[in-house]
Amino acid sequence: MNREKRTEIFRRLRAQRPHPTTELNYNTPFELLVAVVLSAQATDVGVNKATDRLFPVANTPEAILALGVDGLKEYIKTIGLFNSKANNVIKLCEQLLAFHGGEVPRDRAALEALPGVGRKTANVVLNTAFGEPTIAVDTHIFRVSNRTRIAPGKNVNEVELRLLRVVPEEFKRDCHHWLILHGRYTCVARKPKCGECIIADLCEFPRSQRPV
């Protein structure tokens, strides 16, 4: 795919959603960090149901530590892997207080050193909380990037590095959310909605494989 085609794709995605953002509910960088940690192998809807109950009661490292592991589990037990996630969130809160004054660091290495935080989670926090032009490749972005040929790659790291290389600078900060939302609602896994797609004429997914 050439640069002109990619630029037009992102122009259209921007016109469709001028101010894209995460569908996770949050008000502070700390709330976002906790929500993203909880969202691994879970839906945003499911996480929001839990955090809508949790955050009014505890939305700081100190308050979550006061709940303790068992108290936290009561709020997040509807989310998959809640046992390990509760342990990670408690340890994460301890480290934020011990090393960062209770604040979420605006630094990749510091974020990735926190329990339960990998590269994807760090990218989401840096992008969504702090406006950095990072790209967190999840299953939706991986699928859309490969299917459309915007940035094909064999694994999430390859796709991320290619996107960082080929996405025009003016679109980098928001392309993460545009691609996620496009994959979640239009370029879906089993039967992509090519007939409704605003970039169908630019997409390089073979027409013979597109649903009728």
Explain the overall architecture.
With 212 residues, this protein is an all-alpha fold. α4 (61-76) runs antiparallel to α5 (82-100) and α8 packs across α10 (172-185). The two termini are 24 Å apart. The chain has 2 domains: 3-20 and 135-206, Orthogonal Bundle (Endonuclease Iii, domain 2); 29-128, Hypothetical protein, domain 2 (Endonuclease III, domain 1), CATH 1.10.340. It has 10 helices and no strands. The longest helix is centred in the middle third of the chain and has 19 residues, at 82-100.
Unreliable stretches: none
Please give the radius of gyration in angstroms. Answer: 18 Å
CATH class of the largest domain: Mainly Alpha
Q: What is the H/E order? A: HHHHHHHHHH
Q: What is the CATH fold-level name of the largest domain? A: Endonuclease III, domain 1
What portion of the residues fall into strands of 2 or more residues? under 5%
Based on the coordinates given, report the CATH architecture of the largest domain.
Orthogonal Bundle
**General form:** elongated
> Mean of the pLDDT scores?
96
The count of β-strands is 0
Termini Cα gap: 24 Å
Count of separate structural domains: 2
Biggest sheet record: none
Helix content: 55-70%
Counting helices, strands and paired strands, the structural category is mainly alpha
Looking at CATH, the homologous superfamily of the largest domain is Hypothetical protein, domain 2
Give me the number of helical elements: 10
